[in-house]
């Protein structure tokens, strides 16, 4: 055993492992009893990976002669895995605060879209923005997410709708991935809307013949590393046939299928995703019973977005029906100009109140299951040996406070740790 380690977190009142047998996800009964160690400690090695986690006295004996770069005494505190945000659109210019007023006055998502707002408004501003400005605003948003406990986040392109802007967005996300400690899963979402002046068929051909081949070239050259492919499968956007051909082309390039489905209308997106072996489908406010059964069988994760249903006053996603059917349920913030929320603790709270999830279900959905939806549950999403040393230390004696206290994460989160390095220290003793 090497004598020097990066971090020891000792004597925590609770250490929430989530799971302890290498589970890739939790569903049904596995969600009822999360794995929690009372009075526990965690050791993170110099490689940033977890070396030991368990009862404090066992670890004290095991590491008696070891030295640590940093020791945190977590007496009276809780340790949790870093939160995973499985769905965000964080690269854009021009906010849509004016549209919030329209929505409050009763305009629907598609009313705003048809009036030239929504995605098209953001596309216009993002196309015109310099990459350096996009990187600067993205970095600020990611740091804010990190402060709210997110240590792994999925980031989509999709406000370009043509090759140059899509590449600009992907490059900006890649630059943030290299510069910031937060872990990023990168998603190409060129099929986020049909560009003005194009038909669905023309937009689909542009993606298949122009955008994806260029992406493949950049990935082969090692200048871009894309993880997932996304399509907005919806009436008036991309139909089932176009969605199928784009997702298949992405899958053939080695990308995980992770797309928007059954949000505003039942499109049978869930069945299509299950058939294509999709890793995850997001939204699902209008999913059918058949779609739920297909996803449960295919082990396709459902990424539910409580903020979207809340802000757009849509029917809530049927979380309970999905959970009871054995679907792997994950959560995302859907951070974007339409749903401006950086906080996974608030997302978990909304999931519990509006979607009737229990607190253990919501925490698993924002950790191990969200990591599964991004193909990362072997490295993230729980506190297990050899996984990344990404964790939160809460200034409270029970982990449930993170969900119970709506908006309370700003006071509750004392430390955020990524790969054994403290990336946020919320020391309230500095208040004057």
UniProtKB/TrEMBL annotation:
Pathway: Amino-acid degradation; L-histidine degradation into L-glutamate; N-formimidoyl-L-glutamate from L-histidine: step 3/3
GO molecular function term, any single one: imidazolonepropionase activity
Keywords, alphabetical: Histidine metabolism, Hydrolase, Iron, Metal-binding, Zinc
Catalytic activity, reaction form: 4-imidazolone-5-propanoate + H2O = N-formimidoyl-L-glutamate
Chain coiled-coil ranges: none
Superkingdom, natural source: Eukaryota
Amidohydrolase-related domain: residues covered: 79-423
Spans through the membrane: none
Pfam families xrefs: Amidohydro_1
SUPFAM superfamilies named in the record: Composite domain of metallo-dependent hydrolases (SSF51338), Metallo-dependent hydrolases (SSF51556)
Cofactor: Fe(3+)
Enzyme Commission designation: 3.5.2.7
Family stated for the protein in its record: Belongs to the metallo-dependent hydrolases superfamily. HutI family.
Protein name: Probable imidazolonepropionase
